[in-house]
């Protein structure tokens, strides 16, 4: 390992050196050693470095050094993607400026009272750290004036791109003085970020720390192939079995899912809380503080809510829902393995999402190894080991000796041997958390699901010979749901071109409000009065009901497997298409059943064109999701707690 340059040789002032010494900084990180001299020398900087490599110090120290404490104008602006990161950066800058009196730092972001921010801006802070949306609001109000700006920093630019802030960033940069310095930091460099750098940075010093995911060098990455319905059981087992697990963050796709998962884990005895955008800022800060000091061990969060979280205790990152792309994955796992600490990242991957593995490995330049979900025996062994460790600690402390008299009383009263008494006490103590696996371990749902992976990838349509034999028998067969590819099902919605709806609006609604990723959305077909979209067949009923409540153009999507009966709008038909795609779609209707007296199939009723008649009431059927009729899996809906013989569940004792 090469020797790093001490801070004293980077051109920093003595007050900054003293502040760093008080904060415990001894050696600069590689990104700090490269960026600080460039920024102090007046150069623009384009830095590619991962979360946790010391970027805040890399731009924060030279930023503090160039502030004139006697000038009450805004001299530096730092843009961050989230309020959490804005607070974190502002706090770090305040620490750097501790020995430089007169320097004021103000974080501004949505969710804070506007009146309080206006009062603080009138006091004349020299440094503003904020999210793009709120900064634009203040600039347009005239309450944030940047005429004296010396430096603007774009922190985690790729995340701001993903969150849709690029237009705001472009507008902000266009309003700033042309002679100002610019520093842009990003974990990845997609084309839009490079275009911004080319347009707004002047001959920047390009600094790239490490190839690919340097921050993830100390992170052990693996993935588990697990079906949607078994994810919670898999997570619960890993939380019990993983060695050296201190604290963990679990990433879910939607706000609702964070609360559902947290509730289910709490019911199993974990110290857990959700963290999402629906929570008040003070509650989110409280959750992070409790995770930091050990009152919480697990936090279930969305991508946005977890931005800026830096908790040294986090040893594990669980991707409960696969991220939308490889860049999001890199940001997620950056919550662990920071500053030389070891970390562990586990990705739950449905079979249809295997493709993202190649994208992740290409970006991180590290393999992501396969990891089997622990079986019931592994969970049992882990529980037994923890139980034995507790007993060893109790025996070593000597606190157990004071119960000797009670043990003698129990032996006399129960008239049993010491061994039988010990067995009974163990069974009593572990009643809510059994140490032994169930007798029939073949009932393990995850084992069965793993064996069925290849079966699920088989074609879903009927065998042509079967269809031909049914036709020859004179039976009217129900039309199965149309599919848009392997493991995809076609859903219809009563919104179309006549309502001002296009494919972009449908995709936006399904991703932003429905929590789906772009990879989950297949082919979209637009008609005048209705549309259809191909979605994964593995989505459970509660997810589909949530998607159906989304509004587009002031109309509910009302996703259904039923084709709307609008003449001439279904390609290849001259009139309305008849639907039968519910859970009973494969069962012949009453009129189609064989005549038991003659043994011959009854003739189907026909309309004018000889087609099977549509239902008389013409009412839309209630939604029947792809899993309808098959029973609710252990992790569908809000009831995540597994209750079958194949689960080692933890239940709270009744109060």
Explained architecture:
With 655 residues, the chain is an alpha/beta fold. It has 4 domains: 7-208, P-loop containing nucleotide triphosphate hydrolases (Rossmann fold, 3-Layer(aba) Sandwich), CATH 3.40.50.300; 214-375, P-loop containing nucleotide triphosphate hydrolases (Rossmann fold); 377-429, no CATH class; 476-587, Alpha-Beta Plaits (2-Layer Sandwich), CATH 3.30.70. Helix content is 36%, strand content 13%. The protein has 23 helices and 21 strands. The strands form 5 sheets. Strands 3-4-2-5-6-1-7 form a 7-stranded parallel β-sheet, with helices on both faces. It has a 7-stranded parallel β-sheet with strand order 10-11-9-12-13-8-14. α14 (326-333) links the parallel β12 (314-319) and β13. α6 (132-141) packs across α8 and α10 (231-241) packs parallel to α16 (376-397). It starts with 13 loop residues before the first helix and ends in a 54-residue tail after the last strand.
Write the layout of secondary structure elements.
Blueprint lengths: L13 H10 L6 H11 L4 E4 L6 H11 L10 E4 L3 H14 L8 E4 L5 H9 L4 E4 L1 H10 L9 E4 L2 H6 L3 H10 L5 E6 L4 H10 L4 E4 L10 E7 L5 H11 L5 E5 L3 H13 L4 E4 L5 H13 L4 E4 L1 H4 L7 E6 L6 H8 L9 E7 L5 H10 L4 E2 L5 H22 L6 H11 L3 H12 L15 H7 L1 H4 L7 H9 L15 E6 L9 H11 L10 E3 L4 E6 L4 H8 L2 E2 L2 E2 L37 E2 L4 E2 L54
Parallel strand pairs: 1-6, 1-7, 2-4, 2-5, 3-4, 5-6, 8-13, 8-14, 9-11, 9-12, 10-11, 12-13
Antiparallel strand pairs: 15-17, 16-17, 18-19, 20-21
Helix pairs in contact: 2-3, 3-4, 6-8, 10-16, 14-15
